[in-house]
Design goal:
- The structure is a single chain.
- The chain is mainly alpha-helical.
- It folds into 2 domains: 60 residues, no CATH class; 105 residues, Helix Hairpins (Orthogonal Bundle), CATH 1.10.287.
- The protein is 53% helix and 9% strand.
- A hairpin with a 5-residue loop joins strand 3 and strand 4.
- The chain is rod-shaped, with a radius of gyration of 28 Å.
- The N terminus is likely disordered.
- This is Prefoldin subunit 4.
- GO terms for molecular function: unfolded protein binding.
Length: 177
């Protein structure tokens, strides 16, 4: 591949047509994105779909870019919280299983895990109390996490609506499966 790379001409604020591997790139004033002649940007970044055409120029205001960044941040946080909810659901099931197993134990004392590698023998009644306390703590944490997920989801939906109204199919905010 014989690609010529040159420095941008500061007076015209454009780089040579070959500086991006053949796609025309321009350094435009803040708020303006030039999509003409750039199949990579139109096809991959802006997801040209169903034969729909993308405008030659899309005006991206500072507020729009802030909304896009906010949506991205919320999306990452939403995914982290979803993973946390799944961990809490598994922990709730594990605590319930431990409580059920404890009912079947005939001994007065049972081994209780204080940490990953520390087990102590405690009276069965004390272990039942500890399991109940832990289950209540996990339930409260689970409920607050679910509320946070719903709050973030609502804000994401509002931002998604606002951004799709402005950019139409020139922006893709959907999850890739």
């Amino acid at each position: 591949m014989n690609a010529e790379v040159s420095k941008p001409n500061r007076s015209s604020r454009q780089c040579s047509p070959t500086c991006t591997g053949g796609a025309r790139a321009a350094l435009l004033p803040l708020g303006e994105v030039d999509l003409t002649g750039s199949p990579f940007v139109v096809g991959a970044m802006f997801g040209q779909q169903g034969g729909a055409t993308t405008p030659a120029q899309v005006q991206v205001a500072w507020e729009d870019q802030s909304n896009i960044n906010r949506f991205n941040k919320l999306n990452n946080e939403w995914h982290e919280l979803q993973a946390r909810v799944q961990r809490q659901e598994r922990l709730t099931e594990d605590l319930e299983d431990a409580s059920n197993e404890l009912m079947l134990v005939d001994d007065d004392e049972v081994r209780f895990a204080m940490s990953d590698c520390l087990f102590v023998r405690l009276p069965q009644d004390e272990v039942e109390v500890k399991l109940q306390e832990e289950a209540e703590r996990v339930k409260k944490d689970y409920e607050s996490t679910k509320e946070e997920v719903e709050k973030i989801g609502a804000e994401m939906a509002m931002l998604k609506t606002r951004l799709y109204e402005k950019f139409g199919n020139a922006i893709n905010l959907e999850e890739e499966v």
